[in-house]
Design a protein that fits this description.
The complex is a heterodimer. Chain A is built from eight helices and five strands. Chain A has a five-stranded mixed sheet with strand order 2-3-1-4-5, with helices on one face. Chain A is α+β, with helices and mostly antiparallel strands. Chain B is α/β, with parallel strands linked by helices. Chain B folds into five domains: about 100 residues, Glutaredoxin, CATH 3.40.30; about 210 residues, Rossmann fold, CATH 3.40.50.11540; about 80 residues, Roll (Ubiquitin-like (UB roll)), CATH 3.10.20.600; about 90 residues, Up-down Bundle (de novo design (two linked rop proteins)); about 60 residues, Alpha-Beta Plaits, CATH 3.30.70. Classes of the chains: A alpha+beta, B alpha/beta. The interface between A and B is large, with 49 and 63 residues.
């Protein structure tokens, strides 16, 4: 079993105990209690707190907010924004919009997948990178574009994309070595 | 003297924040007194980051492709030396810019001119003038009649007359009514709504308030994509500014009219661009469309009369009410009055946002304003209307850009995305790309859409993989008709359009894939191979070093070879090979 999945399981078990997330969750639910039609907003709030939608939290919401678990799961799986798995430290959103497609976004995808050894919607085993393909980031004149943790990079070539990712990996390694010294 | 820097999403992505930092550092270092202003996007995304120098006589000098190094030069030569840096100058008082010259800016009137975070700027540019006049001097019926006279049609895609929707929502009874602004711009290739919300959020708010007054609604929602964080942030700030000054909220301008606006973030579903799906999503449900009628104007959000327009439509409204419906309908064509914003992207030299009077030809927009095709390649087609639209070929380049003429070509106006393609774009692959998109985004409610798009995608995939069969084109056409006829909402009804238009105009490309197992544009991986010409290869090893699959081998200074079994066909070697050799070829 990889490190990430172990961590996530552990995290899920601690959901009631972890004050860092428990408190904001309570505040979030208090804000929407009794307001009809708030499920999407609640789930967005949960994802902001946890980075994804942990199963246990969804069950907890079903219990306390009196919403059927099937409905929560239905909404959570309908929208692309919601994630049922934790994301890596660096969340790569590779744009697959029309402008990016005609400017060669598929080549960028091949290069990144090959470099990180992951497919779209997967996270590297060290938990550093998650790769996601998204419909359009709206930065079409910089096509092809990717966004890493909110920062857009473009126009990309496979080479340029790899340089950015290798830069981040090197930065992490340095931080790691710095920490152990 | 003043310096203005474009800080839209695309500007920031291109490095505008670094430019701003270096401008501030230069001012401090040289101890100058110059105001630095941030603004939204003027639309010249191809030349980002952009910087304007505005001198004492209010003359504007616009620079493009600005880097911190260029900033130093501008300060040395222009600001202290009084001679503009010609090399980076895009437009100046004596030097017209082709990109801006052919435009007529109504919806984008303030974008790239004002600071979207400054309320003062908004007021100085006629912000809320229309609202003040309307709520104190006009009746709701007069407002609707003015919009009717303008001939404004919905800018989100279908082109439905705006006044008609407002009138219906006004006349339908309800204890509450709602105004919704659709900012869930899901068309890949369109970004005008993002730019408007980032560059001039107050115009959108004012347009919504005006609609609220006309319809009799006191509550408005902006349904915005979560992928547009800057747009959401600026709209939130604008709402707060307007509320603090009593321009939104209770008793606006002492008229007794109340109107509040809040933002709801979409969670990513293309189908939510459809009105009834959008309402379901606003109510916290899965965004699935329902049968119409009843229309939202009869029974929408929580079953109350609801008016939904898109961002660009609302941004036009204050202008119409200040300048009059006649002034608006004087622009454009008879049936498509006014102007329209287009997002030029793809293989185009000067990509960005342009606003032109309707009726201009595609050729004028793409070649005169957009500057033609990147790297002087040959124009092949322009895709309009995103996944619901179609591809328009070269022989139809003189088609005027208006709702009806574009529909006749098999494409649709849509929200105004124009993705330009050159000879290197494979039209079969493009049809596959759009079907892949609509198939993923189909909500699954209607069988024809859910399964039909899947079957069509499978056929297109096998054609691209070199396994197309005789009769596949006819089969695609047959399923396309069924999907169109059997789907409830616009997504399914228009999903086959990209396939049908590419078959209509580029049938020979489909046939080349199916019969000759060739991709004329050399894009479909299964049908191409990368080779190194041993006579041209100098063995520099650049391609071997960059190849992600490490499948290129060879001795130094001797011709290299690609191992075809391992090759990913990513094309990195093609880019890597120095232009003086050009040894890598695609067959």
């Amino acid at each position: 079993m990889s490190c990430t999945s172990q961590c996530s399981e552990q995290q899920e078990n601690d959901i009631h105990k972890d004050a860092k997330t428990w408190q904001p969750l309570q505040e979030l639910l208090a804000q929407y209690r009794g307001k009809k039609g708030s499920l999407v907003a609640i789930l967005q709030g949960v994802q902001t707190i946890y980075g994804y939608l942990p199963q246990q939290v969804m069950d907890y919401i079903a219990d306390t907010m009196k919403i059927k678990p099937a409905k929560i799961y239905g909404v959570a799986t309908f929208y692309t924004q919601f994630r049922l798995k934790p994301v890596g430290k660096y969340h790569i959103l590779l744009c697959q919009g029309t402008a990016c497609h005609v400017n060669g976004s598929e080549r960028i995808l091949t290069a990144i997948s090959e470099e990180l050894k992951i497919k779209p919607d997967e996270t590297t085993s060290d938990g550093l990178f998650t790769l996601d393909c998204v419909a359009c980031l709206g930065c079409c004149s910089l096509a092809p574009v990717m966004m890493i943790n909110g920062q857009a990079h473009g126009p990309l070539t496979p080479d340029k994309a790899l340089r950015i990712i290798r830069g981040l990996t090197a930065q992490e390694q340095q931080a790691c070595e710095g920490g152990s010294n | 003297m003043k310096i203005r820097i474009g800080l839209g999403s695309c500007g920031i992505a291109a490095g505008a924040l670094k430019v701003k930092e270096s401008v501030e550092a230069e001012i401090q270092e040289r101890k100058l007194e110059i105001e630095v202003q941030s603004t939204g996007c003027i639309g010249m995304c191809h030349a980002e980051p952009l910087l304007d120098v505005i001198d004492e006589q209010n003359k504007v000098y616009s620079y493009g492709y600005v880097t911190p190094k260029v900033v130093k030069q501008i300060f040395a030569d222009h600001i202290t030396g009084q001679s503009p840096v010609e090399q980076y100058l895009i437009s100046a008082p004596e030097k017209d810019c082709d990109f801006l010259a052919g435009q007529k800016r109504v919806a984008l009137r303030n974008c790239g001119i004002i600071n979207p975070e400054s309320f003062q700027d908004c007021i100085e540019h006629k912000g809320y003038q229309a609202l003040k006049r309307v709520v104190t001097e006009m009746t709701p019926e007069e407002v609707i009649s003015e919009i009717k006279q303008s001939g404004l049609r919905g800018r989100g895609g279908a082109g439905f007359p705006t006044w008609f929707k407002w009138d219906a929502a006004r006349k339908n009874p309800g204890d509450a009514k709602y105004i919704v602004c659709n900012a869930d711009e899901g068309d890949p290739g369109a970004f005008m709504d993002r730019s408007l919300m980032e560059g001039d959020p107050h115009s959108v708010l004012e347009g919504m308030a005006l609609a609220g007054y006309a319809v009799g609604a006191n509550q408005g929602f902006i349904y915005c994509r979560a992928e547009y964080p800057l747009a959401i942030q600026r709209a939130e700030l604008a709402i707060k500014q307007a509320e603090e000054r009593g321009l939104l909220g209770k008793n606006i301008f002492g008229s007794g009219f109340d109107f509040e606006i809040s933002i709801k973030q979409g969670a990513g579903a293309f189908v939510c661009g459809e009105e009834t799906a959008l309402i379901a999503s606003l109510e916290g449900e899965r965004g699935m469309p329902r049968l119409k009628p009843p229309f939202p104007a009869q029974s929408g959000y929580w079953e109350r009369p609801t008016n939904i327009n898109n961002v660009e439509t609302y941004a036009n409204v204050p202008w119409i009410l200040v300048n009059g419906g006649k002034a608006f309908s004087a622009m454009g064509t008879d049936k498509s009055p006014g102007t329209k914003v287009f997002a030029l992207a793809g293989k185009i030299k000067r990509g960005g946002l342009v606003e032109v009077p309707m009726g201009l030809s595609l050729r004028e927009v793409i070649f005169n304003i957009g500057g033609g095709i990147k790297d002087d390649q040959k124009f092949k087609a322009v895709q309009m209307g995103g996944p619901s639209g179609g591809c328009i070929p070269e022989e139809l380049l003189d088609t005027p850009v208006d709702y009806d003429s574009i529909t006749q070509t098999g494409a649709i106006m849509g929200s105004g995305g124009m993705v330009v393609m050159d000879e290197n774009t494979c039209m079969v692959d493009l049809a596959r790309f759009f079907l892949d998109f609509t198939q993923t985004e189909s909500c699954g409610k209607c069988v024809q859409c859910r399964i039909g798009t899947k079957r069509m995608l499978e056929i297109l995939e096998r054609i691209c993989d070199g396994e197309g069969r005789e009769g596949d084109i006819e089969l695609l056409e047959e399923i396309a008709v069924k999907v169109k006829e059997g789907s409830l909402c616009g997504l399914g009804q228009s999903a086959p359009n990209p396939v049908l238009t590419t078959i209509r105009y580029f049938r020979d490309e489909y046939e080349a894939h199916i019969r000759d197992k060739k991709c004329p544009a050399k894009q479909c991986k299964a049908l191409i191979t990368f080779q190194i010409d041993p006579e041209k290869c100098h063995g520099c090893g650049t391609c071997a070093r960059k190849c992600p699959a490490k499948c290129i081998t060879g001795e130094k200074k001797k011709p290299h070879v690609i191992d075809q079994d391992l090759c990913l066909k990513c094309g990195t070697c093609l880019d890597a090979c120095p232009s003086k050799y050009r040894a890598v070829t695609v067959e």
